[in-house]
Write a structure and sequence with these properties.
By secondary structure, this protein is mainly β. The chain has two domains: 1-50, Immunoglobulin-like (Sandwich), CATH 2.60.40; 54-97, no CATH class. The protein is built from no helices and four strands. It has strands spanning 27-36, 39-49, 58-62, 74-77. The strands form two sheets. The chain has a two-stranded antiparallel sheet. A two-stranded antiparallel sheet has the order 3-4. A hairpin with a 2-residue loop joins strand 1 and strand 2. The protein is rod-shaped. The termini are far apart.
C-alpha cells in the first residue's frame, strides 16, 4: 500500500513530516520528492524501522553504597536495545513478598 502526504510547503514543515499510525518494529520505505510549478522532481528513498518498545534494563542490583536503614539503593544498565528511539524514562515498582 502506498500512502501520499503533501507538506503544503509551509515553512515550519517544509523539510520534515511526522508519519503516524505505523506498526512498531515494521520496516517502511519512504520516498521524498520536491515539487514546483513545473512538476515533481526525482525522489530519494530510505527504508526505516518504525520504533518499538525498548528491551529490558540489565544488571539490576542493590547499590550498597546508598542503601541505609529504611531505604534501598538500586542500579541498572540501559537496555541493549532502545527499540529505535531514545530512552526517556524508567519506571520502578516494588512490592513485599
Amino acid at each position: 500500500m502506498t500512502v501520499y502526504y503533501d507538506t503544503n510547503a509551509h515553512p515550519d514543515n517544509l523539510l520534515r513530516h511526522n508519519v503516524v499510525g505505523l506498526t512498531p518494529g515494521t520496516s517502511y520505505t519512504f520516498k521524498v520528492q520536491a515539487q514546483n510549478m513545473v512538476g515533481l522532481g526525482p525522489g530519494v528513498e530510505v527504508t526505516i524501522l518504525a520504533a518499538g518498545k525498548p528491551g529490558a534494563p540489565e544488571n539490576l542490583a542493590n547499590d550498597a553504597a546508598i542503601t541505609a536503614s529504611g531505604t534501598v539503593g538500586i542500579t541498572w544498565s540501559a537496555p541493549s536495545s532502545n527499540g529505535g528511539s531514545s530512552i526517556i524514562d524508567y519506571q520502578i515498582s516494588y512490592w513485599t513478598d
